[in-house]
Amino acid sequence: MNQQTKVVVVTGASQGIGAEIVKALRARDYRVVATARSIQPSDDPNVVTVAGDISDAATAQRVISQAVERFGRVDTLVNNAGIFIAKPFTAYEEEDYAAVIGVNVSGFFNITQRAVAQMEKQGSGHVVSITTSLVDHPISGVPSVLASLSKGGIAAATRSLAIEYAKRGIRANAVSPGIIKSPMHPEETHAALNALHPVGHMGEMRDVVDAVLFLDDASFVTGEILHVDGGQSAGH
Fold first, then answer.
1. pTM for this structure?
2. Which CATH number does the domain housing residue 192 bear?
């Protein structure tokens, strides 16, 4: 199978960065299996959508099964689905914890395990996950313990996967963004959010998309946590 027919699974694909990743992959003529809770059917015969909660193992199984049934393989998994709840640590409730761990950790585990099992059969594959720069560089005024607990675990798991599967043709990398300009950040918050980055502005969704595409192309790169954060993780 040449690059033009690569098959990519994208989680959290119904909007924002996930939807932009799907568009970029289709621009390369890759086949895509896109999943999210509220994702709608696609008119594109080379995009299969699977609606469901990624924290549910049954959803993960359906996604990978659909990829294999429709396109014959899984070349890349993009773990983009994620929840961020900003609250003071002592204000988190059980529901917050369950939601964040369910999507960010269980979702990662469920679909990555099944995707890697398929990649092992093929003798090749790539897992790229989206974390957050807050894991490495917490910011006063941006409470993020649950984000660090969950996404920090994904960063560590990425390095572990990279080493465990290095000799089996499977790579694992992650993109660690700063604050990205998207519909979730109202215009009136932009000035304050811009100031949190040494370069003086938030990132664009395209910056994260470009990083995902770079890592997917970079066959000699594995175990990398690529910071796309305007210098945030380097210091202030």
1. 0.94
2. 3.40.50.720
